[in-house]
Design a protein that fits this description.
The protein is α/β, with parallel strands linked by helices and 507 residues long. The chain is 30% helix and 24% strand. It has a six-stranded mixed beta sheet, sandwiched between helices. α16 links the parallel β16 and β17. It is globular, with a radius of gyration of 24 Å. The C terminus is likely disordered.
């Protein structure tokens, strides 16, 4: 085996959106080594991957590549890659000009093969990752987990000299996570050099031999796994103290009234089909006024479709027995009438949020349900926004640039944004996706704080086996059956792993 380094970085620094992302990184990868890059949100892991994969070229310092790396290249699998592909498909969507009013867009098979013919290796990997049934489906019509699997197969078939996997278990259901763990172990024992980007210690596979630990764009430590993990600076970095939570502000004025009695949401025998594909079949669900619900199920089971029915985004709700906030769907209410009662937070909102705003302005935008701030606002909105930042332990960030915050802190700010108008329902679609262990605990603690101290009800969507808030008292689960999924509503969800952080007492 050659002893020539696969790559060497010498004093690499990178500025991204006018902010320092990497600071003087020195690192080399030798044949036979399998590395993980560890760090909390904002450490610089993604920036390092962008340099290694040539997505970022305007860096200072020297990047030396071996002949093998130059010839075979780097494959980088990340969420941003998925978003770029879907955005491209949305721009090219010509459904309104087609006779069938449907543009499938780029199919899963086309993304994986890039024009090549399928071979035995292709069929092996699509079966291993259980995506053979979606090969002819468009990218816009697959789940987050299915997209991640699609991109992984494409990367493996490219036979790169270096494979970079950014938090590969994110967005996967429990069964898919188990499959992915086995596949990653295979890759780490293969001849392909692999770099895993990890946000928490428990995400580091046993087969990883070396660790690079980043902190605010700088290399804190690099070396053999055991020596790095034994350094107390690593645990201090990954488990910092949490800021104290404050008292929730008084509820904002609501421009609507709810009926005195009855559930918040009620679906009776609701079914949704798209052509030959049955997405939901006779779903029954009642969300009462004291319920906090976790909606969970495998990737692609129909959770997103269900949520779009209750938020007014899906026209399939018309003609069905759906009652939202005491009003039968299709009784003349507008989409805005429905949406003003929700506060929402999901990964897509986070990634699409406009740049260049201060944290306070981001929170104020929640009053107007805009991705950005385009309306006039005054002292009442300002004061409420500041109070919500204080309640969630974020008071010190009000005047800072939203872009300058770590990914985890940005997600917490967006939670405050979702709450400023005192919504009846707080809809959280995988709110901990992309968060390190510290910020995941902060998010779950904040959700429990909200549930314990105001009348907002929680709908928490989970695609994975991660923790859920302690406040959850209802579980709507998509259970696999022979011809699809059955949606079952349980009052007691003993199978849900609760948050380890209890909510503070009512203030």
């Amino acid at each position: 085996m050659s002893t020539e380094p696969l790559l060497e970085l010498h004093d690499i620094s990178l500025t991204y959106r006018a902010l320092p992302a990497l600071r003087g990184i020195n690192w080399r990868l030798l044949p036979g080594q399998q590395w993980a890059c560890l760090g909390p949100n904002g450490a610089g892991k993604t920036s390092l991957a962008r340099v290694l994969s040539s997505q970022a070229s305007h860096y200072a310092g020297r990047f030396e590549r071996s002949a093998a790396l130059t010839a075979q290249g780097v494959a980088y699998v990340c969420f941003e890659q998925a978003r770029a592909l879907c955005d491209r498909d949305r721009k090219l969507d010509d459904s309104e000009f087609r006779a069938d009013a449907s543009d499938p867009g780029t199919t899963v098979q086309a993304v994986i093969l890039g024009g090549r013919e399928p071979d035995q290796v292709f069929h092996h990997w699509v079966q291993r990752l259980h995506i053979d049934h979606i090969l002819q489906r468009g990218l816009r019509f697959i789940s987050t987990g299915e997209m991640r699997k699609t991109l992984l197969v494409r990367a493996i078939l490219a036979r790169p000299a270096l494979l970079i996997l950014d938090s590969p278990l994110d967005g996967l259901d429990r069964a898919s996570q188990q499959d992915m763990v086995r596949i990653i172990d295979e890759l780490l024992h293969s001849d392909t050099a692999t770099l895993l980007l990890c946000r928490q210690l428990e995400d580091i596979p046993a087969a990883v031999s070396h660790l690079l630990v980043l902190d605010a764009g700088s290399a804190l430590l690099a070396g053999e796994r055991a020596a790095v993990l034994a350094d107390p600076r690593v645990s201090a970095l990954m488990q910092p103290p949490a800021a104290e939570l404050g008292q929730l502000p008084a509820p904002a004025a609501r421009p609507y009234e709810l009926p005195a009695k009855g559930p918040l949401l009620q679906l009776r025998d609701v079914s949704v089909r798209y052509g030959e594909l049955s997405v939901l079949d006779k779903v029954n669900w009642v969300l009462g006024r004291e319920d906090h619900c976790c909606v969970s199920g495998p990737n692609g089971c129909g959770k997103t479709t269900l949520l779009s029915l209750v938020t007014g985004d899906n026209h399939k709700a018309y003609g069905q027995d759906i009652t939202l906030f005491g009003i039968r769907r299709g009784s003349g209410e507008s989409v805005w009438d429905i949406k003003q009662k929700y506060g929402q937070l999901d990964n897509q909102l986070h990634l699409n949020y406009v740049r260049g705003l201060r944290v306070l302005e981001v929170v104020v935008s929640g009053f107007f349900d805009t991705i950005g701030l385009y309306d006039d606002w005054g002292d009442v909105q300002r004061d409420t926004a500041v109070q919500w930042l204080t309640a969630l332990g974020l008071a010190g960030y009000a005047g800072e640039s939203f872009d300058a915050l770590s990914f985890g802190l940005q997600r917490m700010v967006l939670l405050a944004r979702a709450m400023v108008k005192s919504p009846i329902i707080l809809l959280l679609d995988e709110p901990t996706l992309g968060l390190d262990g510290h910020h995941r605990k902060l998010m779950l603690r904040a959700i429990d704080h909200i549930a314990a101290n105001c009348d907002t009800r929680i709908i928490f969507v989970s695609h994975s086996a991660g923790e859920v808030p302690a406040c959850i008292n209802q579980h709507l689960v998509f259970e696999p059956r022979r011809d699809g999924f059955e949606v079952v509503c349980r009052r007691v969800a003993e199978d849900l792993p609760p948050s380890t952080t209890a909510a503070p007492p009512r203030g």
